[in-house]
Write a structure and sequence with these properties.
Blueprint: H1 2-14, H2 22-28, H3 33-39, H4 50-63, H5 73-82, E1 88-94, H6 95-105, E2 113-117, H7 126-135, E3 144-147, H8 150-158, E4 162-166, H9 173-176, E5 183-184, H10 187-200
Parallel strand pairs: 1-2, 3-4, 4-5
Helix pairs in contact: 1-4, 5-10
Length: about 200
C-alpha cells in the first residue's frame, strides 16, 4: 500500500496536484481505478487515462522489490499448505509482472494457480474470477476469497463464493464494515478464523 501511495504522489506532483496521504488513500481507493484517479484530480479530457496508468505501473514495478511481505505471510501459507488447502492468487496485476513479483518474494511455490490480468489498467477481476473458479477442482461452497477491498467482496458475491476481508490493506476498516462478511485485522487472525471454519464444516 505504501508503494502505491508513494508512486501516486509522484504522478500528482508531476501535475501540480495535492499529494495523497495513507489514510486518505484508504478512504478513496476503488475499482475501477480510473475513478480513484479522477477523485485525486486527474483530468482525462486533458490526457488519456492510459498515460498516468502506465506511468504508475512503471514506478510501481521499480519500487515493489523494496516492499517487504507482512511478517506472518509465509507462516500462514505454510499452515494452509500443511492442512492440504489449495492456494490460488487472483490479482488485478498484469500477469507477467505478477509472476515476476511472486518469484522475487519467494512465494510462488505456495500456489496452484497465479492469475493476473492482461493489461495494466485495473478494470477489475470479476470475469477473471469466473473463469478461474471454473477451472478449480472444488465446489463453490469450498472456496473462500481472501481480499482487502470492497471489490473483492463484490467479486465473491458475483461468483457465489465466500469472502473474508483483511482490514490492514488498501481500504479502511470503516469502508469494509459496510459489507456483510467476516473481517480480520491480520494474517494470524485469518489463520485462526479459517481453522474455525474448517472445524465447523
Amino acid at each position: 500500500m505504501q508503494v502505491c501511495v508513494d508512486c501516486m504522489n509522484i504522478l500528482l506532483e508531476e501535475r501540480a496536484l495535492p499529494p495523497v496521504g495513507t489514510e486518505q488513500y484508504r478512504e478513496i481507493f476503488t475499482f475501477p481505478v480510473k475513478e480513484y484517479y479522477i477523485h485525486l484530480g486527474f483530468d482525462f479530457e486533458k490526457e488519456d487515462f492510459e498515460v498516468p496508468a502506465h506511468r504508475f505501473i512503471d514506478l510501481y514495478r521499480e519500487r515493489l522489490p523494496n516492499a517487504p511481505l507482512h511478517d506472518e505471510v509465509k507462516s500462514v501459507m505454510d499452515h494452509f499448505r500443511k492442512k492440504g488447502f489449495r492456494q490460488v492468487v487472483l490479482s488485478a496485476m498484469e500477469q507477467e509482472f505478477l509472476d515476476e513479483a511472486m518469484r522475487s518474494k519467494g512465494i510462488e511455490h505456495y500456489f496452484d494457480r497465479i492469475a493476473g490480468i492482461t493489461d495494466h489498467l485495473g478494470e477489475g477481476k470479476n470475469e477473471m474470477a469466473r473463469s478461474l473458479i471454473g477451472t478449480l477442482p472444488a465446489a463453490k461452497s469450498e472456496i473462500i476469497m481472501i481480499g482487502d477491498t470492497l471489490h473483492d467482496y463484490e467479486v465473491s458475491q458475483a461468483n457465489g463464493i465466500r469472502c473474508i476481508l483483511i482490514t490492514h490493506g488498501h481500504q479502511s476498516p470503516e469502508r469494509l464494515n459496510g459489507v456483510e462478511c467476516p473481517k480480520v485485522s491480520n494474517f494470524n487472525e485469518l489463520k485462526d478464523l479459517i481453522d474455525r471454519i474448517g472445524q465447523l464444516s
